[in-house]
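Comment thread on ticket #2218

A.B. wrote:
> Attaching the input chain for the structure job we discussed in standup.
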Amino acid sequence: MPAIVVALWLLMLACLPASALAEAQRVRVLSYYNFLPWNDHDRAGLTPALARRLTELSAGRYRFVPQLLPRRRFDQELASSREPLVVAWANPGFLDDAQRRRYLWSPPLLKDVSLLVSRRERPVDFSGVESLAGLRFSAVSGHRYPDLEPLIASGRLARVDAPDARLALMKLLFRPDSDFAFAELSLLGYLRRDPSFPIDQLHLSARPRLTSLTRHLMVRRRDAALFAELDALLRRLDCDSRWQATLREYGQEKLRVACAPAP
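C.D. wrote:
> Ran it. Output below, let me know if you need it in another format.
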């Protein structure tokens, strides 16, 4: 190879930023939501889309990889994995961190609401946990419902599990072994765009179960350096037109936290 070509090649390498020369750091984005709009086998949904867009915005610094896990394995990974992790769409109350002292939490990406839903021909209206006594609950397997545990433990509320939230609603509609389920506006927003789902057969209780269900990204405190860089990426994602289009695609535009563009 002519010496001048080698010299030019070395000069080009010297001009490249360090991020272009270093291998991107792999960071898993964990979630136990195994249904759309969140995740469909790590191929479609908001979690894979979020991982892709964060990777692009990091410009080679990180490679965010979505990983869908059952809830029990999710808890194990969170407790024992030595790799840096990001948890998607979590709420402090879901992970026993209501005071936000165990983990580091991003600002909310979405503001969700949890509603009680039942069959239109046999409506159930929520007026507090005690109003559910004597009923049967179509729940999501592996999910925790702390406010309902006393009723369930006492036998005053029967829990009938389904593999995911969409199937819990289908069980509610087409099988006689449950009276109600809980569904978030995020799920209902997506199902309204799905012509195969009979959403008009659902009755939505006027009083929500949870009115302030914010969804965040979470990082363990040992990964504080990652959290600082993730925070900078999220400030760019906040007003990113491609990300906003993704939210519209999955019916989440009304839950998006208002964009605050830089002055």
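A.B. wrote:
> Thanks. Noting for the ticket: DSSP finds nine helices and ten strands in the chain.
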